[in-house]
């Protein structure tokens, strides 16, 4: 259905449309702010992943009734 949907000339048309709509002076500023936003997003996702990795091993072995100090029920 979407075989060869995105041709190189499609990208050229999109680039020209961006230049016409935003102007050549505002495009570098927009690209710079987009880069900053992506860097912030990347660092935040890395921090969340690191926090999750630290919490997961500590919670794994200490789960269940035996870990709470109760003897197992028979």
Compressed to H and E, one letter per element, the order equals HH
Proportion in helices: 55-70%
Strand fraction equals under 5%
Ranges with pLDDT <50 over ≥5 residues?
Answer: none
Number of strands: 0
Could you please describe the fold and organization of this structure?
It is a single chain. The chain is mainly α and 74 residues long. It is 65% helix and 0% strand. It contains two helices and no strands. It has helices spanning 8-22, 27-59. The N and C termini lie far apart (60 Å). The model has no long low-confidence stretch (mean pLDDT 79).
Keywords:
74 residues; mainly alpha; 2 helices; elongated
In short:
With 74 residues, the protein is mostly helical. The protein is built from two helices and no strands.
Topology summary:
Elements: H1 8-22, H2 27-59
């Amino acid at each position: 259905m979407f075989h060869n949907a995105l041709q190189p000339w499609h990208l050229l048309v999109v680039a020209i449309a961006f230049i016409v709509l935003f102007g050549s002076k505002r495009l570098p500023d927009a690209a710079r702010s987009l880069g900053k936003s992506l860097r912030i997003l990347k660092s935040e996702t890395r921090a969340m992943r690191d926090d999750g990795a630290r919490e997961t091993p500590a919670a794994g072995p200490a789960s269940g009734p035996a870990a709470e100090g109760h003897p197992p029920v028979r």
